[in-house]
TrEMBL record:
It comes from Mahella australiensis (strain DSM 15567 / CIP 107919 / 50-1 BON). This is Uracil phosphoribosyltransferase. Binds 1 Mg(2+) ion per subunit. The magnesium is bound as Mg-PRPP. Its EC number is 2.4.2.9. The gene is upp. Allosterically activated by GTP. Catalyzes the conversion of uracil and 5-phospho-alpha-D-ribose 1-diphosphate (PRPP) to UMP and diphosphate. One of its GO terms (molecular function) is magnesium ion binding. Its cofactor is Mg(2+).
Length: 210
């Protein structure tokens, strides 16, 4: 296994992920769970944000205390399923700018097809959290990272929910400088490129399409 992967195994994340995987979980609950998990994961993904000291006054006296030093963040969602992760992250880092990369997987070739890209204009100055719940073959994340790099993004973290071993190895090989944060690593892909056991089609479950 490549070594640039961090598994977030907090009990709350694991509990909610189990509910999310369950096929009897409907779209409303799926959306809520994905949102909550994304927020919990963002807590870990932002752990290395730099702090600076400021002076404030409490009701009792002066204090030197620490605040985030103003590092700029961008949350970039891979459409569609990444949309389900942005709000949870923004609740923790409301000043982050949001971008969207539209990709879908060709069902025959499993290769990503681009259809949309709108990024913050100052993406070169921002640390990027790229979000998509599923890392299967890794083709979509690879394409999104290349697009971000073409637009000048320098520091990218990939945040997913379930990653296959194959997807992790592919991204680690293509982009060794991009750490992957995931809640679970699943064993394999089936003949249609779906993660097994996974959770099925994340976009369809999120939006109730099929
Ligand atoms: C899913 C998922 C990822 C991609 C992962 O999107 O949300 O973007 O597949 O597969 P990969 O690692 O093999 O590229 P999908 O193509 O189903 O599009 P959708 O979210 O619009 O349904
Ligand atoms: N995309 C999904 O939504 N689920 C998978 O298991 C693989 C790709």
């Amino acid at each position: 296994m490549g070594n640039n992967v961090i598994v977030l195994d907090h009990p709350l994340i694991q509990h909610k992920l189990t509910l999310l995987r369950d096929k009897s979980t409907g779209s409303k609950e799926f959306r809520e769970l994905l949102d909550e998990i994304a927020m919990l994961m963002a807590y870990e993904v932002t752990r290395d944000l730099p702090l600076k000291e400021v002076e404030i006054e409490t009701p009792v006296g002066k204090a030197r205390s620490r605040v985030i030093s103003g590092k700029k963040l961008a949350v970039i969602a891979i459409l569609r399923a990444g949309l389900g992760m942005t709000d949870g992250i923004l609740r923790l880092v409301p000043a982050a700018k949001v971008g969207h990369i539209g990709l879908y997987r060709d069902p025959d070739t499993l290769r990503p097809v681009d259809y949309y890209c709108k990024l913050p204009g100052d993406i070169q100055e921002r640390d990027v959290i790229l979000v998509d719940p599923m890392l299967a073959t890794g083709g979509s994340a690879d394409e999104a990272i290349k697009l971000l790099e073409q637009k000048g993004a320098r520091s990218i973290k990939l945040m997913c929910l379930i990653a296959s071993r194959e997807g992790i190895e592919y991204i680690n090989h293509q982009h060794p400088d991009v750490p992957i944060y995931t809640a679970a690593i699943d064993e394999k892909l089936n003949e249609h490129g779906y993660i097994v056991p996974g959770l099925g089609d994340a976009g369809d479950r999120l939006f109730g399409t099929k």
